[in-house]
Design brief:
This protein has 749 residues and is of the alpha/beta class.
Length: 749
Amino acid sequence: MSVALISRCDRGRIIVWGFRMASSRRRAVLIGVNQGGHDVHLPALRYAERDAQAIRGMLLDETIGTFDDGDVTMYIGAGANWHGIKTKLRELALDSGPSDVLLVYFAGHALVPEWSNQLDAYLVTADLDPDGLRREPDNGLRMAFLKRDVFETFAGASFLILDCCQAGIYLDADLRHAEAMQTYRTQVDRHSALLACRSGSAARENEEYGHGVLTHHLLRALRGEAADDSGRVSFGQMAAFVAEQGIEPPPVQLVHMWGPTTVLAQPPVSRHDRQSLSSPANPGNARPCKSPLEDQSSSILQLLSRVFRSETRPAQPPQQTGYADRVEIMRYALGAESVAAVEFSGAAIRVVNATPRFDKEELRPLLERSSADAIKYRTGIPGHIVSNDAGRRILCVPLLHEDDRVLALILVDPAPALLDMGEPLAVMLRAMCDTNFLGDPLQAEMRVMTALRTAFGRLPLNLYEYAFSLYQKLVGSMFMVFQPVVELALRRTGVSIQSFEALARRGDHETRAPLGALQMAYAWGDRFIIERDALLLTKAIHSYDAADAAASYQGTKPLSVNVAVRSLLSDAYLAQVSKALIDADMNPRTLTLEISEQDAIEPGPGERWLQEPLAYFHRRLTTLARDLRITFAVDDFGVGYASLARMAELPLTQIKVDRAVLHHPLAMEELALVARVARHAADLGHAHTPRPVIVEGYDDAAPVSLKQIYDLGIHHVQGFFCGNTASASLHDLEEPIREQIASLVRGEK
């Protein structure tokens, strides 16, 4: 909501120059009590009622105020009774809309009853009866009531200012010691507060000011000392100004979402401003909708830097295993007193790994309380905070669970500013514990970013772009090896290499694809998928060009490279295919793009295809094959979205069967069916030869023999068998290997 262009012309009437504004209401409830309650043993105040009147005067000021007379309700002195105030606030909360604004101000005393758990307090009204609260605890204006029944219910932007002692108790009101990470729970995104002091501290009045100290500086801010270049003062600017005044004890400010943009005071609109507002608008600026993590992005980046790149982080001995190589770095990164991986099992607490200062016995009461929540909410809440009256706090992040046993990460007294990150912190820590951030920090950091993406959806633009750059580096760090596709024959001379497939690897000694890194792209969407495929294709073609030039045999074998369905729908990816082929001076007919069966052929979110998906994609592939002169294959048949329709209807030059089919009880029946589909076009006379079928992932332990595969009419196999491995260089089959393969095809041992 914006109130920046409102000009007050008459009392009770608002004129908006130059544009129409969504219907909204701005309400304020102001409370000031000098002498409160029956037998409340607190000293009388001098300026609390005057403070409330001064705030009212500012909000209704003819030149700079942004509220109307009828929308500001004030309760002062004897008229400040808890029942009337609660009734009014509840009415405003229930009768609110998303564009409405509610400001609640209180100046006076706060009371913490002796029988309470010290996590709630009462704002002292004129009729408060402390003795009656034990029997009827709702007979008063409780901070928990404001939080739960007013601000959590209010549909728009709400703001609270407490100029009283014990104001900071509002932060913990209704938490009951352990809460699910967010201080404000459901209303965190639309509620802001400015509190005169922390829990246990006292607010002060000042005779020179003639006001409470906090309110004095509030009035200074609203009168223009906190104004921006246009003379406007938002709640966020006001709170920041007050925090900079060196007040002791320091106030507490919590400014969320609408706090920086909701204007409380502004200059009058001049004729020049009215003319400029009435003139045609320029195209303006574009910015994405705000992400829920917008206010956390700098903290997230700082924490990532401390974990993955800080030069001062502690070194770890190479012999450490399990979580031992992580807990000390996490302790350092979060400024915690100590960190441990702890297993909870019923009443038992077992420390798996810990930093030196972790004292299980000293922390036992907190750990026992944490154990109950960790077991109860192990899949429902990513983390929770447990605190005690002595000010000790532990952050518990469940990592693994089996039945009633939970392995959790425990951080003792981490930096309060980092705890304010809430749930994103727990998500990041759990992802860090799942990674090898010492051995492979690049992939580990990307996994942490992907965990945030998965948990919260869209990230702030700067985090999204940071993740994109990080993913480019991760994919760029991969290199290509080439695995031969072997053509089977009964005789040694007929056994040969038909083609090579380019496979990505992260390390010299890895034999498996880095599937975790490759599949991260799907959590981020098309841009990441297309960039991944473009980088890998370019790397594959250039690496293959160099390897082919150094090969000892004559002629260039065909090359196949994996590609996602979404990449084939991108003109940018296809332009990269053409460029890479031209740069390597490679014949396009040499290249086959393998389309994974694990990708759905369907429109993306918000996308519309005018034809049935298979028909649309068939037309796309036919056009690409004609224009680029490349060929296509179906990859991983037998998993994911595998279907006979896709295999039969798309213009494919070959079909690759996933290794999972080999281990199926009906493997032979499935392979026979694939072979029949591959021959179908040739049997009808629509093609000269059947499409080749290639069995992927074949190894010496496969339950189906090469003879059985060959007898089905499938004459191509790819995998690790007979000493065959993938390599960055290209090698022909040696004579003994050819003979061994031929003998297996003949059924000989």
